């Protein structure tokens, strides 16, 4: 091979790696991302059962019911709609009534209860997940940041 | 009074930085040595002024001066002294002052030890440093003044977020910033080289130690942050692919690439344009990291106290510096002549391979981190990109790179022999496969993929050892001679091999804990036992306790082996009094490289178990987990050993220059 051909081969190899990475990224962006829905989004347009989504809102006061063991049921709302959530596991330290949380999981066929396999609350007591804050603003029930921090 | 002094010092530092931004550049253009020399005292003065300012803020924290808003919001008089001090950078304003302090400290180092640099290069480098300093000083003074007072002064502070009250998080931000900001020097050198239109091996010899130092600090900082998240958050995870973690990981990946390309540039004067671009990109990613963490544009589990208006300001800084630097690069890069030809199969070729894969990996992380932002601003749809995305993209890109690592150091410069390298690695490869088979045998039912992962980790470790053994002629000469040769190896060779070895150790830890970890969540009543990793864990009951600024419920556990008590473990639920904020303190028992990890859930309050002291407990057995952090410590040690290499002290020509400098009157 001449020097020019060698250089071309190297450049082609490099391009191949980048193309492969690009394909991986595109596939992953199609299959591995999780969309965020608020309770009112779900009221307006139900999510196909089995699709993994994130559901976020405020924990409805008085809705937390502990079952046997680590099972817990609660509801999240955004001022307009409410969705019931079932979760089996340890809740984050800052999980409490009125707190903004994000849950991740899916709806089961034929049920209105969202089955979550993870629940996130932020580790700052003033925290409001950004998605939840945006939803509350759009629903007109936003109370402000609390104390500026 | 002292607080106001700190504020004024910061303003004067801005004035000094502005002078340092302009005068030396004009001097370098005109060839006016007097104007260029302004940079030196200005850099020293900036450093002293910012140090004074930082000292004043620390003083306010230590004396619990709650008339300062920043202290009121982030401190408490009952907090232990160490956390009063770490509280200075446990918040936005203070951490930005620390960022600037490190920046001007590095500028001062360049000013002091840069006597052997060409005068125009030094003037330009210090000026570029001053541009960054000025931008960030404007940012702090206009949007995040840490010295703002409140009247009337409150009696007591609101305390620092309790999960930040930890020794790990006291050290983590300074280390991370030393890394981030260390790359600013590489950036400034790159910009100065573009302004000069000149670049050579001496330039690379200057940039490499800075890259190495920054990389070492960043490695240590990320590792520390990861371990902190692991034990303090009580979730048992060591990496979440969270945007804030990615923000520190991207400069690390790019910095690792820069470390390797600067090596080519220094040894062979090839890859000049690429190295300059990489230096710009690495610091740009550091700035992006600061922006992502501080602006609040991303939903993260780790960000604390962020404010969108500041985000816009940092975004401005970001656009100015990254856009400006890349424009300058586009204009001037052609003037940097490329040198040093090489064959595709050679050390240079291997390092190009390294750079190709590392930058591609950085790009996948960047896309995963920014895509949600982009999509939301374009379509309004909110998505989250989590570990599955990164496992599918980052993993496959890194795999060939990891496989290639042991080959790199065995290839000769210019023209290498791949088959020869493979022949010298057959022993390492054979031993690694054996280790993989052993894993398959001992951990019955282990997935084949895990065994291959273990083999890969061992291949990296044995590959690095093979490199050292070959270089010291082990087996070819007597032990005494090869020991002598080993001791005589260049420190950078030793450091490089050690870093590769550490990488292997980390890979082993990652594979081990991912594949063999067991987790159980269950209710436990006092006296009840559970099994994990061959140990028996007995719950002995809960007990309330009181700490300096918190109250807690401690769960006592006893670990038994064959019925014999081995150790006690405590895990607690804490409530920090000032903020009424609960946290979970995990109980961790380290056995060799494995850990038993216990974290408490809520007490059971319903059903028949209510009130009997029954509690939900999460128990993990994490085999090989500590190897992850041991590996990073070995990597960082490799960095430090490389730094001590004589070759990185700029060579002989500097001596005469320094002698001349000594005869000049003091500046």
Report on the structure:
The complex is a heterodimer of chains A (149) and B (667). Chain A is of the alpha+beta class and 149 residues long. Chain A folds into 2 domains: 1-33; 39-139, Nucleic acid-binding proteins (OB fold (Dihydrolipoamide Acetyltransferase, E2P), Beta Barrel). In chain A, 30% of the residues lie in helices and 29% in strands. Chain A is built from 3 helices and 7 strands. Chain A has helices spanning 3-31, 39-44, 130-139; strands at 33-37, 53-59, 65-66, 71-77, 82-88, 100-107, 114-120. A 5-stranded mixed β-barrel of chain A has the order 2-4-5-7-6. In chain A, strand 6 and strand 7 (114-120) form a beta hairpin. Mean pLDDT of chain A is 80; it is low at 143-149. Chain B has 21 helices and 10 strands. Chain B has a 5-stranded antiparallel β-sheet, with no helix packed on it. A 4-stranded antiparallel β-sheet of chain B has the order 2-10-9-8. Chain B is globular. Chain B folds into 4 domains: 1-165, Four Helix Bundle (Hemerythrin (Met), subunit A); 200-406, no CATH class; 425-516, no CATH class; 518-622, Tick-borne Encephalitis virus Glycoprotein, domain 1. Chain B has helices spanning 2-30, 33-36, 39-62, 69-74, 81-86, 92-113, 119-143, 167-196, 201-232, 243-268, 272-295, 308-332, 347-379, 387-404, 418-424, 426-442, 448-471, 479-487, 491-516, 626-643, 653-663; strands at 383-385, 518-524, 529-532, 535-546, 550-561, 564-576, 581-585, 587-591, 594-603, 615-622. Chain B is α+β, with helices and mostly antiparallel strands. At the A-B interface, helix 1, strand 1 and helix 3 of A face helix 13, strand 1, helix 14, strand 2 and strand 7 of B.
